[in-house]
Amino acid sequence: MKGIKRQIKLVEVRSELAAGTRGASMGIDALKVASLDKQSNFFARFEPINVPDANNYLWKGNKFPHAKYVDGVYEVIRNVFHTIKTIREKKQFPIVLAGDHSTAAGTIMGIKAADPDKRLGVIWIDAHADLHSPYTTPSGNMHGMPLAMCLGMDNLPCRQNDPDEVTLAYWQKITHLGGPHPKIAPEDIVFIALRDTESPEDQLIETHGMMRVPVASIREWGVAQCSRVVLEHLSDCDQIYISFDVDSLDSAISKGTGTPVPDGLSVEEAIDLNTELIKDRRVCAWEIVEVNPTLDTENTMAENAFDILESTTRSLVENF
User: Fold this and answer.
1) Which member of 43, 66, 151, 253 lies 3.0 to 4.6 Å from 163 by CB, making a disulfide possible if both were Cys?
2) Rounded to whole angstroms, how far apart are CA atoms 194 and 186?
């Protein structure tokens, strides 16, 4: 790789509280095992920042059915928020390796708090929309809620649950991190490879006109054209954050994640997409989440995810 022109900070978040399946906290170490198997020096090049998790809450038992472990999730998101805010205030570029996807809310909130006057766009490469709140969630798993946290949307018209007061108090604490205002606008979210949503999420997407780029469009138009369309849609944004959930990959190759979904991206498409999008100079952070090696006896997911991580980082370095 060429000399780094942007100062990259590797951030490790080993939280799995918000996932429905245990094991995502081991995903970062699975990536490191994959790097060794591939004889890569990637992890020797960066001194990581380890964000404190709250996985010990798992032993205490869940008290909040409509926002599982919300007390611990709040703790972790707050830790991520402060870490990312500090990194961005120094104009450094965070590459975040995380367990469950809920902590992406802390990343978004930290980016926004460091530059509150800059409009922030989000490219969400994921099989799921993650737009639920405690009022709408069918599972209570908070990795399905990070975008709702950042939008500050409870989606009460689609209410299905009656969360208790303690749950809602923690929910408000989360949504108010960095201030009691939305951190992003719905029109500044682009979903790529989205294909497994519930009706409350569909209603939000339709009502607010959120952009969706299905896998079929990527194959019809090609990655380069899709990337141009996505980035043009976000033309009014000053900064862009990219979140890559490995379940955006097709379930045939994404067994090592908690919520695999058919008809997803190939590894090659994911590499091409991320390496192209990260060339945009407005991109200020990139994140990869939800590798779960306990579901994958051969560590195949982590090996594929590592290829995506290394290729995306190389593109970032070579284009700045």
Assistant:
1) 66
2) 15
